[in-house]
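Dear colleagues,

As part of the handover before I leave the project, I'm documenting each prediction I ran so the next person doesn't have to rerun anything. This entry is a single chain, and its sequence is reproduced below.
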Amino acid sequence: MKIKTIEKILNNKFNAFVKSITDKDVAKLVKQNTLISGGCIASMLLNEDVNDYDLYFTNRETVFAVTKYFVDKFIKAQGKSYTHTITIEDTDDRIAIRIASDGKASYTESSKNINKYQPIFLTSNAITLNNKIQLINRFYGDAEEIHKNFDYVHVTNYWLSSTRKVYVNQKALESLLTKELKYIGSLYPLCSIFRLRKFLKRGFYINAGEMLKIMWGVNSLDLHNINVLREQLIGVDVSYFHFLLKDLDKKGDVSYDYICELIDKIF
């Protein structure tokens, strides 16, 4: 797909999303300070279907405003019977959504029966809306800052709301053309291992050297520390890990034998 075509698709998708925001102040912040990156542009460049559109924000003010707006919308849609306690934590290093007991929350009605861009799933890191939109509150900043948290180079092309243009880089395009995964380092190397499965199914391959880079990153982690393990697993799209973490919280430590026993039981 040509860059101009991708820009047109993203512009239309973004315009429809902004139009759905009823708070004018929030809509203005989103319109000025949004960055779209990740798998959607890679998929379009390869003429593949887009799973979802990941929206990041370039400053803290926008992250907080968007998070509060859609968390409030989520709670209102659930009605009085909703039992989860959901709060927004604004700390020095991040803005996080905290959901009491479960750590995640999903809309209880069929998404077919609700309006477009309704929040249907919450985690501490992101808000998933219907109609293929995901709002990332875990990170914010310009493209360079956002991409420090990415793992594979082919997903680092991006679109900016301030210019309405797509920006591509040579290494990302080379990776897409050759279908060769290139690891660029990540704060979450454990998550990168799980993401490998998805890309291998899509026809990518990875050489032993790139795999060693990921393993080296994992080796630097203290996964026996429950807080480190939780932070690493928080971005993995496997709900079973939620149950694993709940069991580990009860025990208080992470030994090899115990975690293997838990994994065998859960999976």
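The chain has a mean pLDDT of 87. DSSP finds eleven helices and ten strands in the chain.

All the best with the project,
I.
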